[in-house]
Specification:
With about 900 residues, this protein is α/β, with parallel strands linked by helices. The chain is built from 21 helices and 45 strands. α14 (about 705-725) packs antiparallel against α17 (about 790-805) and α14 packs antiparallel against α21.
Length: about 900
């Protein structure tokens, strides 16, 4: 027994002898070695030096002896967090954020770090319950565990964190009620100094406790949106005199809005949308600080426009009350609030004339009165921006019908900016603003302010640009940024690990941007960089070039002539010989297999010089033309525009994917053209258009129940082949009704492979982590965690299945199709399963829908929030085939 106790001391002595001149405390060295022993990779400096305090990237020490900070964000660490973390007892800061393969449970030993002030684990893959031992961290000020896979309840022990200012547990799978001290001894009501309660996007249930809020609290931001909270909004909410942001939207809250809400005179953002609130629309009079207000999709009593529509809210930028049961005339003064940018009052019953007089806010960009009862409109010449009146009687007037007011609005979510910088190896990040004071990123106000503050307040030394921004379905603002290594220009210089950790420390500054952007955090894309140059390579190139020049001089004009002949031959045999000369070309040239190369002039002739009369579709990529080849074959020709949202990567992916997959339910690629800066794809022609087109208008009458089941089975079969039998298997990543085409026999074919990823790349972590897809169809777990799997396609396909039932778009009026169907399901309704009022009328009239219940249940299983609960695509195809057999 004595020998056993002596072994650790002996080991520490041997370690100390081995380190020699190492100044770091041996206990800390041992702990760090134990941590890295659980990882497959990490900073290379940890392997090349024996002294952590002197040479290890991401390790900061006090007096060069004890480790006080571990900053290892976005280092590509794979593995788990060892219990040895608890031995670094002098730690004050831990930031392991955006290591998307750092998984497993958070070890309880982390509760030993009594001096820890900051713990940031954003965007990792930690799972299991949050350890109760975190309540022992008496000096903790920042706790950011958002965008992980934590489950179970919020530990009541967190209430003991008396110094906590920032609490962020969002984007996890936490469930149960919010803990309070009255019932559990400790609770979140004890966090008197906390300014940020971010518990959004979980599965929290039960009522919001009355005692959760008190006048002694300093809270500024409360994010409880996208949970399963029920009951009433507690009257105690009015005690929070410093509150600036309150999001309770997307829950199951009931009852009237408490009158105490009027006490929140500092409130800037208020969102109660998508609940079951009743009574009168709350009185906002006196809430002069309010910028962004959303009360949509509740069960308020019918009323005329409240008086505060005309005065009092001088700071208001965004007013959203969709489906609010408002009626009567629209007050003209509504549009004169000086900072107003967007008015969204669709799906109400406003009637009479819409008068937008001369005193219109200069900031106003969007006015949406879709689906009201307006009979006339008067718009001042001072307003030249978007006005949406489709679905109003006024649009039956032939004079106004042709105007853009009466056209169905597009769903463009992403705004690209023009000041994007160019460099070969950028470091990319997406900032997630969860409650901005605005819903329109004004280029002349907020955009320059954002650039300036990221430059100055975050202390970023590198050149950077904001490439694009978008508001997602949760009304979060996503801003995609790109940072370039200093002095890189368009060359190949890379960021080193040390430069990233020192100069791009974004999440530790999460409270440093102006309040107008609201609470936010950064998600960084995995950084991979390969420098193309080295001294040896340059020397080799110089020698090779000199030898080649000498050979040319010696051989003379004969060699020059042969060289030109060879170049012409290469150009004919290798259509991608010039790949890379265009700035939008990405990576190596496409590896096509037996795909025909078309000359530009061939395609120009067969489309009548790309005549508009031949256009059969348009999209973010450009236009699709119908063409007839010289052999009589009809084809669809997709020509990418110069300003396309897609580019070289999508063009390359489409060629490589479709040249390798062959299935009757996948679109066939006939060829491509890469010439004269043109990127053109040639497909088989599918005459009956997209599923989306056929589910709308008169065409939907041709899609009876049996045909819709056949379409679902065709699509599922094609995707199952793609996931499991293609060589190599692929994940489509953009399944939607516009990417399912119907031929002359109504057989379905899956199309558009521009975003697809190889399953092998995804499983090995070599695929880009930047989330792509289409809102409404996008897998929420993929969006939340950046973890793409084949189950992401299953979620998207489940949404398509619900479209086949309802003939409605995935996002309509602020509601997602999954939520609409889930809320409507009535398992006692044998005929329509409770969905009669949300179904496509064509199916309601048909009746006797064999297998309807099984089909809807299968769709809802496919759209489960957790990928683990969704079936594989082959299982989906099999289930649909069973329904088809019962139809015969």
């Amino acid at each position: 027994m004595a020998c056993t106790k002596f072994l650790p001391l002996l080991f520490m002595w041997l370690l100390d002898q081995q380190l020699g001149s190492c100044s770091t405390d041996p206990q800390d060295v041992y702990a760090l070695r134990s941590l890295s022993g659980e990882w497959k990779n990490g900073p290379s400096s940890w392997r090349h030096s024996d002294d952590p305090c002197g040479n290890w990237d991401g390790v900061n020490c006090s007096n060069s002896i004890r480790v006080t900070e571990l900053k290892l964000f976005n280092m590509g660490i794979k593995g788990t967090l060892s219990n040895a973390i608890g031995d670094l007892t002098e730690l004050q800061l831990i930031d392991f954020s955006n290591n998307k393969y750092l998984n497993g449970q958070l070890p309880p030993s982390i509760g030993n770090l009594k001096k820890l002030k900051t713990l940031i684990l954003i965007g990792c893959k930690f799972s299991g319950t949050i350890p109760v031992e975190l309540g022992n961290l008496s000096q903790l000020q920042t706790l950011s565990l958002n965008a992980n896979h934590f489950t179970g309840r919020i530990p009541a022990s967190l209430g003991r964190l008396a110094d906590l200012v920032w609490l962020d547990l969002a984007n996890n799978q936490l469930n149960g009620s919010i803990p309070i001290s009255a019932t559990e001894g400790s609770g979140l009501d004890q966090l008197a100094h906390a300014q940020h309660f971010h518990l959004n996007k979980n599965y929290l249930s039960g009522p919001i406790p009355l005692s959760l809020f008190s006048s002694s609290m300093n809270v500024k931001h409360i994010l409880l949106d996208s949970n399963n909270l029920s009951g009433v909004i507690p009257e105690s909410i009015g005690l929070l005199q410093k509150l600036e942001v309150l999001r309770l939207d997307r829950n199951n809250l009931i009852g009237p809005v408490p009158q105490s809400i009027s006490n929140l005179t500092r409130l800037k953002v208020l969102n109660f949308a998508n609940n079951e609130l009743t009574g009168m629309i709350p009185n906002m009079t006196g809430m002069h600080a309010l910028y962004n207000l959303d009360l949509s999709n509740n069960s308020f009593d019918p009323s005329e426009a409240p008086s505060w529509f005309s005065s009092g809210l001088q700071n208001l930028t965004t007013l959203t009350i969709e489906a609010g049961k408002l009626h009567g005339e629209v007050p003209e003064k509504l549009f004169s609030f000086p900072n107003l940018q967007e008015v969204k009052l669709s799906r109400n019953s406003f009637s009479g004339a819409l008068n937008m007089g001369a005193n219109i806010s200069k900031q106003l960009k969007v006015v949406n009165f879709q689906n009201n009862l307006l009979t006339s409109v008067m718009v001042s010449s001072n307003y030249n921006d978007k006005l949406i009146l489709v679905g109003n009687p006024v649009c039956s007037n032939m004079h106004i019908y042709q105007t853009e007011y009466c056209q169905v609005p597009g769903q463009g979510f992403t705004i690209k900016l023009s000041d994007s910088i160019v460099c070969s190896n950028p470091y990319e990040a997406t900032s997630m603003f969860r409650a901005p004071y605005f819903s329109y990123l004004n280029d002349s106000i907020y955009y320059p302010q954002l650039r300036e503050n990221i430059s100055n307040k975050l202390g970023v030394a590198q050149r950077f640009s904001i490439d694009n921004y978008s508001f997602d379905s949760d009304e979060y603002l996503q801003v995609h940024m790109k940072f370039c290594p200093s002095g890189s220009g368009s060359g190949s210089k890379c960021f080193t690990s040390k430069e990233i950790l020192m100069n791009l420390d974004l999440n530790s500054k999460i409270d440093s941007l102006p309040d107008v952007f609201g609470p936010f955090y950064f998600m960084m894309s995995e950084y991979q960089c390969q420098e193309r140059g080295s001294k040896i390579l340059i020397i080799g190139l110089v020698i090779s070039f000199s030898a080649a020049s000498l050979a040319v001089i010696c051989i003379g004009s004969y060699a020059i002539r042969k060289k030109k002949q060879a170049e012409r031959a290469i150009s004919k045999s290798d259509p991608f010989a010039s790949w890379g000369s265009n700035g939008e070309d990405i990576g190596a040239a496409p590896n096509q297999q037996s795909v025909r190369f078309f000359l530009y002039n061939e395609l120009r002739k067969c489309t009548k010089n790309f005549s508009n009369s031949q256009v059969i579709g348009t999209g973010g990529y450009g236009k699709v033309y119908k063409g007839i080849l010289p052999d009589g074959q009809i084809v669809a020709i997709k020509r990418l525009q110069k300003d396309s949202l897609q580019g070289g990567l999508e063009f390359k992916t489409e060629i490589e994917s479709l040249s390798r997959v062959h299935h009757k339910n996948l679109i066939q690629l006939c060829g491509f053209c890469y010439e004269k800066e043109e990127r053109i794809l040639v497909y088989e022609y599918i005459c009956n258009g997209t599923l989306s087109e056929n589910l709308s208008g008169s065409k939907s009458t041709q899609l009876d129940w049996k045909r819709r089941i056949q379409i679902a089975w065709d699509s599922a079969t094609g995707l199952a082949y793609l996931h499991e039998h293609a060589n190599p298997p692929l994940i489509h990543r953009d399944i939607k009704s516009t990417n399912i085409l119907l031929d002359d026999n109504w057989n379905a074919k899956v199309a558009d492979f521009g975003l697809s990823k190889l399953v092998k790349e995804v499983e090995t972590g070599n695929a880009s982590s930047f989330v792509k897809g289409t809102w409404g169809y996008l897998d929420p777990e993929y969006f939340r965690t950046n973890q793409l799997t084949a189950k992401s396609d299953v979620f998207s396909f489940g949404v398509v299945m619900l479209e086949l039932v309802t003939a409605r778009s995935p996002l309509k009026g602020g509601e997602h199709i999954v939520g609409v169907v889930e809320k409507a399901v009535n398992r006692y309704d044998r005929e329509f399963y409770g969905l009669k009022h949300v179904m496509d009328e064509v199916l309601v009239e048909e009746g006797n829908l064999i297998g309807f219940k099984q089909f809807v249940d299968l769709a809802l299983v496919c759209t489960q929030m957790s990928a683990e609960e969704r079936p594989a695509m082959s299982e989906v195809a099999m289930e649909i085939s069973m329904i088809m057999k019962n139809l015969d």
